[in-house]
Write a structure and sequence with these properties.
By secondary structure, the protein is α/β, with parallel strands linked by helices. It is 46% helix and 13% strand. The longest helix is centred in the C-terminal third of the chain and has 20 residues. The model has no long low-confidence stretch (mean pLDDT 94).
């Protein structure tokens, strides 16, 4: 979710679920160590529970970056062993690490020695011509020996040559049963599943076999799905009743951001997935694109965009 799930996106998501665990976009260990840390991994305490996802293949650098993340207040550090992008392949980490399970174990062990917070791994079931049974078992054995706290399995292979990152999210067939078998063979290991999961009705099916469900692009492209998390999975009311309530709760965060010199667009770029299928949604998206991007845009512009949908909702309620 690089370039997608930044801190502003996470605020939006947190306002729709108190209980969902949020993850940062992947940040390389070197960037955390050498870059602008506040810009790269800074977050608002209201985002908790939130995990920092790291990319890298050097145990010492990952341990140093994990320590920095823990000191920032993250309560979980997640090592990405599933991203197949060209940039990640060029650095020989992400999904490439499925080929080096012993190295992944070394990375986990180094991070565990450096911090007291949870260390988790997100992986694929394999890459290229690997046998998913052997590949996932080998990775699991090595990270378990290193003390990993949980494993998140994207239930697809990644093809490192011949498929784009987008195609790698869609073309390799999903194999949820492989994740189920992994959990059955490792009952004391926390195992969550990821990949192609959309409608909330699907979540309980996976949770009958596993400990958690991770949703990525569905949560971004249709963020209102998060309103179902607390009621469906935790038996608690959602923080807000609907997307309109979330937007109202979001206003103080936007106002504070603008007051510090930020732009409205930092938030509205993450709102285009709201109101799917509703009357006025197309006009809402157009208004965001045309009036909420410039440096002078403010809350009045966002409210005008929302009005394209709310007027239809109010008319239907009055009818």
């Amino acid at each position: 979710m690089m370039d997608w799930t930044d801190r502003h996106c996470r605020v939006i998501h947190r306002l729709m679920s108190r209980r969902a665990r949020l993850y940062t976009e992947m940040v390389t260990a070197q960037a955390v160590i050498r870059g602008d840390r506040q810009r790269l991994i800074g977050f608002d305490a209201m985002e908790q529970p939130v995990a920092l996802q790291l990319g890298g293949n050097d145990p010492a650098l990952l341990a140093e970056a994990a320590k920095i993340g823990a000191d920032f207040g993250y309560d979980e550090i997640n090592l990405n062993c599933g991203c197949p992008s060209d940039r990640v392949q060029g650095g020989a980490f992400g999904a490439c690490l499925m080929r080096e399970p012993a190295l992944v174990g070394d990375c986990v062990a180094a991070m565990k020695a450096a911090v007291s917070v949870a260390i988790t791994v997100k992986c694929r079931v394999g890459v290229d011509d690997q046998d998913p049974e052997a590949a996932l078992d080998a990775l699991t054995a090595n990270v378990r020996a290193a003390g990993v706290d949980a494993l998140v399995v994207h239930a697809r292979k990644a093809w490192l040559q011949g498929l784009s990152p987008k195609e790698n999210r869609e073309i390799p067939p999903l194999d949820y049963q492989r994740a189920y078998r992994l959990k059955a063979a490792n009952p004391d290991l926390i195992v969550a599943i990821n990949g192609g999961i959309r409608a909330p009705v699907e979540w309980p099916t996976h949770l009958a076999h596993l400990d958690g469900v991770m949703i990525g692009r569905e949560a971004y492209q249709n963020p209102e799905v998060l309103l179902e998390v607390d009621p469906l999975l935790f038996g608690e009311a959602a923080p807000v009743g609907d997307a309109f309530g979330m937007l109202e709760a979001l206003e103080p965060h936007i106002a504070a951001h603008i007051e510090k010199g930020g732009r409205l667009h930092a938030f509205t770029r993450h709102l285009v997935g709201l109101f799917p299928g509703r009357r006025g949604a197309r006009l809402f998206r157009r208004h965001l694109a045309e009036h909420c991007v410039g440096s002078e845009a403010g809350l009045a512009d966002l409210r005008a965009a929302v009005a394209h949908v709310s007027r239809y909702e109010e008319a239907a309620a009055a009818a």
